[in-house]
Request: fold
Amino acid sequence: MIGIYDFMAMDDIQKGEAIFSRACLGDRQEDGHLIQLYRVDEVYVEVLYDPVLNQITRFLPFTTSELLVPYINIKDGFVQ
Reply:
């Protein structure tokens, strides 16, 4: 089971292998980046992709559910 500290200790290749063997849970765009959400065991990870550079620029791991709010689609008071 991978925890947040385990994930943060990985190098970028290991992080990519851990993430991309999972299904993408959601995506959004912000400040010119495509941000995709993944879950690796106990950790949620946002992967920031810069389309201009054509590369992943950051992996942002977190465990708090409050940071999932940008991925919830609410329309007419209902979660879509």
